[in-house]
Fold each of these.
Amino acid sequence: MVVPAANVQDRDGAKRVLEKLRHQCLRLVRVWADGAYAGPLVQWLWGLRGRSKILLEIVKRSDAQKGFPVLPHRWIVERTFAWLGRYRRLSKDYEYLPETSEAFIKIAMIHLMLRRLAQHSEGF
């Protein structure tokens, strides 16, 4: 996981995040992204790996739509942010260092996974 500083543009920070996928997550073949990530990042990600290519699919909203429409696959990200926001340390941006934010996000996700595993194992 990579948490870039707040002064880093999302498009630029995405390269640091996605660079980690070069040798990890080899089964990953598709990444969905917001319209802000369109452009050279699509080609850059396609060329990141030799044989196991990664497709960056841009999910755009229609300009004709009013309000806040639910977009395909976008709700997954919003739901994850909502889960993380339930943790007090992650509800606001309290941390000075991005590394501290990374650590608290990892702790929150580990907690979520452990709770789900515990609920799943109760039936056995």
Amino acid sequence: MRDFFLVGVGGFVGSVSRYYLGGLVLHITAASRFPWGTLVVNTLGCLVIGALAGAAEHRHYLTPPTRLFLFTGMLGGFTTFSAFGYETYFLGREHSWPAAALNVGLHLLLALPAVWLGHRLAVSIMQ
């Protein structure tokens, strides 16, 4: 039960942070049609997960509950793109380049079309 609480509280912190930062960036870049807020959040999430993972690997000071709170909860609520980025980086770092490329390719080939499919299904059901 503690693990669910840690993930939930972390997710709350991450989601609220994403909402705030995305809104701030949207306000600053209001004249642009480009989704700068999402880009900033995803990039910052990748930077943070990389820094935390690097620190955890070299100093071994992040306990499993802390990792649940930070990685799964907070960064998961902030952006799941950070998990995608870290997992792809980890595969490449371990010289598993085919798996890293497959991870990127499958996300592009499955996840983006899934957005289109989900949208089409919702539109057809709502008509």
Amino acid sequence: MQSTLSSDNSLAGASQLRRRTDRQGRGLRHFDRLSVDASKLGFEIVEISGMLDGVDADSRSQLASLSKLKSGANKVLDANRQVGEAATRVRTQTESSRTTLEELLTEIRRSEPFILDLANWVGGLDARIDQVATMLAEVRKSNALVTSIANQVNILAINAKIEAARAGDAGRGFAVVAEEVNALSRRTSQAANRISGQVASLDNWITELSSETGRYGTTVSGVHEGTTRTRESVEKMRVAVEDTGAVAEDILTSADAVKTAGDGFRPSFARIDEGAADTAGRIAGARDRLEALIDLSESLVQGTVAAGGTSDDSRFIQRVTEDAATMGRLFQQAIAEGEIAERDLFDRHYTPIAGSQPEQVMAPFTYLTDRLFPPIQESALELDTRDVFCAAVATGGYLPTHNRRFSKPQGPDPVWNTANCRNRRIFDDRVGLKASRNTDPFLIQVYRRDMGGGDFRMMKDLSAPIMVGGRHWGGLRLAYLF
């Protein structure tokens, strides 16, 4: 009986153990599945976050474009206002100029008959001067005749005096007459001479007056022609001013139309701007919530792995934690051997490398990581064909020593340098900072890596903290394709 009971108890115990073992096995399989599902969830969330990043970038770009458009529209409206003001000034000025030109034309038209009369008078004066010259010529001839007669009379008087002297007392009375005739002849001759002199002077004056009259005639003719041309020019100016006024009126009409249109679309711009800003704010809020979901999914993956779940990341986790521990021991050994002081190992003051673009910097410990880390980091790349890089970062994101493929000497092209010269750089993005600051045994992050040309690849960034004598120096990052 007892044997039967003992046998039954043994069978029951074995059965319970099998059930417990089965439950544990099913639990582990659930953890494995949960770990895989959490990893996939992280993938999807990061993918959505990446897409939302693109939408956010587009939204911000649209906001910037809208801001530029609004600014440009305001500038157009402001310029249109200035055009309207200028057109108003032009219209006012053209009215004033038109009035002035009308007055000037009136004065020119009023003076033209006087100038024409003066030209005609000067032309007639020349003819009258010719007549005077002709009359003076006749006077000269008559005076010459008088002079000739006076000379003949003088000769006759002399002869009479001679004959009177011969007659004696009988000719004495005739002699007196002859003397008077002789005196009259002399006075006549003198008067004729004076007349000749006056006529000569008049002749000279007439010649000069004729010359001056000719010049005056040319001048007056030029004045008349210039007045005519001036009148014609002023009339053209008046027409041009009137045309300018008409154009100014057209400009004012167009400016008013633009102002009316601007007043119409300004509220629309304001509504669009408010809507775009609200949308951008909502997108930014969604991004922030997705960032929290990414952190939550990463914590979920780490929690399931830490609880015993297995995943494709397990061997990567084991490798990176072991390598991070090795790096910590190498640092501790270097301090112990006096190769570097502890304060220099934890110094976060960096010296820029002159001429580097993008900027590279040096730290007091860079020479040490260049010697210690390459063998470990290069070996990690052989773990899986999906491995992209393996590099240690100090707290704050400084990456002193990178893989050889990313540690080329810089050249003149900053774009090429950005892709190929990634050592001695500070990577303070979200993934880089979290990896450098993490103190948990390991940290798995999922992110989209820009491969250029709009091509993004989903990657995992696995990191483990590097501890030196209980102090957190940074972390070792191992990035591989999802």
Amino acid sequence: MKFMFLLYVPQEVRDDPGARAGLEAWMAYGRSLTEAGAHLGDNALEGLEAATTVRVRDGETLITDGPFAETKEMLGGYYVVDLPDREAALEWAAKVPNAPYGAIEVRPVLETG
């Protein structure tokens, strides 16, 4: 089964210059996913200041700077993984380096084909 891990972090953590000090933990996590044969893809995302929201209502395109909703946590990145089941996905999600201070939303990927 394919799952997406959506990684949420508090804005103040993302903006902390010392946050990059934990980069090795992220690299190690990525290597462990690859070694397990589960890693399909991942990316970090730019900050909220780079976000743009697009809506189309009654044929009119509305473009707004910033994210869809204001929250205390921001979407900082994602992983796409292939794991046997939900339980395995939850176990791997608990190992993501931001789990102690952020949140990981685990979503099954809808297979349409």
